[in-house]
Every structure is written in structure tokens, then in C-alpha cells.
Design brief:
The complex is a heterodimer of chains A (230) and B (97). Chain A is an all-alpha fold and 230 residues long. Chain A has two domains: 164 residues, no CATH class; 47 residues. Chain A has twelve helices and no strands. The termini of chain A are far apart. Chain B has one domain. Chain B starts with a helix and ends with a helix. Classes of the chains: A mainly alpha (230), B mainly alpha (97). The interface between A and B is large, with 94 and 71 residues.
Chain lengths: 230, 97
């Protein structure tokens, strides 16, 4: 019973991810098909790689005939930020058994990490892993089903709708950040610092590294201010 | 190289960085200060994910993302449910487009 209620709570928490993922996944499906991938190939990429930005980049590189080593290396660089997020989430979920921790990490994306890491309480609750499992599964299935739909049906969504839903995940990130910022100014400083450093690194290094370095620097500085205040 | 093989390699190099921390946490006991560092990573990550990416919602018109972002901030400040923040910001962007 505990497991069921945790699972249900997780599905509710993951709802905004679903809302944001389906239109992007449909767009991915459409673009991947135009890039010459078969329905099986483009869906396999969503099932196996499960990383939005890397999939857009990958299909694009396949279409222009980039070398395979180049594609794989670029994917690694772009997705390495998940290592930092996973380390943070695993620290948060350190009391979970490994048989839950390991599969959970495979469901980590920018969005599932954001929702899961703001919801700290279930890590200390009985069968809290069902809560995170539900968020991650919901996000994963939305992504896979959305790509399949995009690849099958093609451009079904009017451009104005898919463009306006382009703000969805950013709005979700903002909605996750604001309540914490209101309770603790330090979090606001950390977030703004990350924004500014990401913005200033962006023109010089690849986007993947810019996010990694900005996140590490801003959070490191954040622990420093916390320590100084103690 | 067949496309499916490239996709498989993409999956491997994506999965390894995601999976490794599960085993690192099992074996390594971090000192408190690293624990505190890991605990504030979500706020830094959120910041880096929001900006400057939000400017690319409509790449040729960066202000569109800013308008949607401001709408999301206002809605979130009023403690509106997160799903409604997402929908509200999307509606605002729909009308500014």
C-alpha cells in the first residue's frame, strides 16, 4: 500500500515533465525521420539513449554524414553533465538499496533530476524509491511514445502550438527553483551564479561542458558561502 | 557503420556517466563538505539549465523566451501549481508569438 501511494505521488510530481516531453519528442520523431532514420531506428534511439539534446544532435550529425566516432564523442561530451547530476541524486538517495539506485540513475535527465532533487522527503520515507521510480518511468514513457508518434504521424502539431510548448520545460525549471529561492537566498545566489557562468562560458566551449563547469563552480561557491555563515 | 550500431554506442557513452555514481556512492564515504556541495548542485543545475537556454525557445527571437520566463516567475511566486505554471507560460508565449 505504501508503495502504491508513493508511486501515485510520483506520477503527479512527474506530470509537468510529461507535458514538456511529449511535444519535444514528437518534434524529435519528425526531424529524425526527415533526417533519414527509420521508425525503428529513431524509436530505438529514444529507448536506448534517452537524452533529448543528444538525440537532436545525433540525428543531425547522421544526416550530414558525420563520422561515427565524432558522433559518439559529441554525445559523451553533451551528456556528461548527467554524471554530476547523478552523483548529487545518488548522495540524496544514498539510503536506497543498490538494486533501486542503479536503475534509477539510468532514468536521469535534466528534467527528471530537477523534479527528483527538489523533492527530498521521499528519500527518508518508507519505499520512497517508488516515488522516484514513478517520476522517471513516466518521463521515459512520455519520451519514447512521443518519438514514436512523431515518427509515425509526422508533423501533426501546428507550429504555433509546438513553439509555445517550447517554453514548457523552462517554465518547469523556474517553478521548481522559485519556492526554494524564496525560503533561502543562498539558493538564489547559487542559481544566478550558475546562469551567469554558463552564459559567459557558452561562446567559448561546447554547451555540454559549459553546463557542467557552471554547475560545479556555482555549487562549490555555494558551499563556501554556507560555510562562511556558520 | 550501420546506424543502429552508432545508436548503441551513443547509448553506452550516455549510460556509463549516469550509472557510475550509484556504485561510487556505495563504496566512497564523502566528507561532510562534499556532501553539502552535492546538496546544492540542484540549484546550480537549475540555473544553468534555465539560462541562457531560455533565449532559444524561438532562436531568432530571444525575447519570446524571456517573456515566457517572466510569466513563469510571476505565476510561481503566487504559488500556482507547477502544471499551471507550465501551461500559463505556454499560453503567454502562444499570444506573444
Amino acid at each position: 500500500m505504501q508503495a502504491r501511494s508513493q508511486f501515485k505521488k510520483g506520477l503527479t510530481a512527474g506530470l509537468p515533465i510529461m507535458l514538456g516531453y511529449i511535444p519535444i519528442a514528437i518534434t524529435y520523431g519528425v526531424l529524425a525521420q526527415q533526417a533519414g532514420l527509420s521508425l525503428f531506428e529513431l524509436t530505438s534511439m529514444s529507448v536506448l539513449v534517452y537524452a533529448g539534446a543528444a538525440q537532436f544532435m545525433g540525428t543531425n550529425m547522421l544526416a550530414i554524414g558525420a563520422g561515427s566516432i565524432e558522433i559518439v564523442l559529441a554525445t559523451f561530451v553533451l551528456n556528461f553533465r548527467h554524471f554530476v547530476m547523478s552523483l548529487s541524486f545518488m548522495h540524496q538517495a544514498r539510503d536506497f538499496p543498490l538494486r533501486w539506485k542503479a536503475p534509477l540513475t539510468l532514468g536521469l535527465t535534466d528534467e527528471s533530476f530537477s523534479v527528483a532533487s527538489i523533492e527530498v522527503k521521499p528519500t527518508k520515507q518508507e519505499k520512497g524509491y517508488y516515488f522516484y521510480g514513478a517520476i522517471f518511468l513516466e518521463a521515459y514513457l512520455s519520451w519514447v511514445v512521443g518519438s514514436l508518434l512523431g515518427g509515425m504521424l509526422g508533423d501533426v502539431m501546428p507550429e504555433s502550438i509546438s513553439q509555445s510548448l517550447g517554453i514548457a520545460l523552462y517554465a518547469m525549471f523556474i517553478a521548481l527553483l522559485i519556492p526554494s529561492v524564496k525560503t533561502n537566498v543562498r539558493y538564489a545566489i547559487i542559481a544566478i551564479l550558475a546562469m551567469l557562468s554558463n552564459y559567459s562560458f557558452n561562446p567559448f566551449i561546447q554547451e555540454g561542458w559549459a553546463i557542467v563547469i557552471a554547475t560545479i563552480l556555482a555549487s562549490f561557491f555555494g558551499t563556501f558561502i554556507i560555510r562562511r555563515e556558520k | 557503420m550501420p546506424t543502429l550500431f552508432i545508436i548503441t554506442l551513443m547509448a553506452v557513452v550516455t549510460a556509463i556517466p549516469r550509472l557510475m555514481p550509484a556504485f561510487i556512492i556505495e563504496r566512497v564515504k564523502f566528507p561532510t563538505w562534499i556532501g553539502r556541495w552535492l546538496e546544492v548542485i540542484p540549484y546550480a543545475a537549475l540555473g544553468a539549465l534555465i539560462f541562457p537556454g531560455i533565449l532559444t525557445v524561438v532562436p531568432e527571437r530571444p525575447y519570446i523566451g524571456l517573456v515566457g520566463g517572466v510569466a513563469a516567475i510571476i505565476l510561481a511566486l503566487f504559488r500556482v501549481h507547477i502544471v499551471l505554471v507550465v501551461l500559463g507560460a505556454s499560453v503567454v508565449v502562444y499570444f506573444v508569438l
